Amino acid sequence: EVLSVDDDPVNQMVVENLLKPMGFEVTCCMDGMEALAELQQRSYLPDLVLLDVMMPIMSGYEVCEQLRHLFPRTLLPVILVSAKNDEASICKGFDSGGTDYVTKPFNRQELMARI
């Protein structure tokens, strides 16, 4: 299962349309607070979190930092997804606890390889 966190419904639909035909279950959350609540109330974790960086209320970096307080990298991989493709943003993604970082618009084959 993949937990997709993105405040843009179109981006959510793109992720679902890409992953569901490949056999993945996809759960969508519209913001970081919703994603944190979803993960804390479950009795199991998803296999992966796809996490948008630029969101209102909490950035993806902030959400990732919170996730790392709850779950180690080995237990919950997080791929940050962002239009920010500069070195500082990518490094900040890894510093916040991201397992990987993919830039938007993402290449379908690259995203699948990273997943």
From TrEMBL:
CDD domains associated with the record: REC_OmpR
Reactions that this protein is recorded to catalyse: ATP + protein L-histidine = ADP + protein N-phospho-L-histidine
Signal peptide: none
GO cellular component: plasma membrane
This protein's UniProt keywords: Kinase, Phosphoprotein, Transferase
Annotated EC: 2.7.13.3
InterPro entries, sorted: CheY-like_superfamily (IPR011006), Sig_transdc_resp-reg_receiver (IPR001789)
Stretches of the chain forming a coiled coil according to its record: none
Modified residue annotations for 4-aspartylphosphate: 52
GO molecular function: histidine phosphotransfer kinase activity; phosphorelay sensor kinase activity
Keyword Mitochondrion: no
Gene3D superfamilies, sorted: 3.40.50.2300
Domain spans labelled Response regulatory: 1-115
Protein known as: histidine kinase
Species whose genome carries this gene: Guillardia theta (strain CCMP2712) (Cryptophyte)
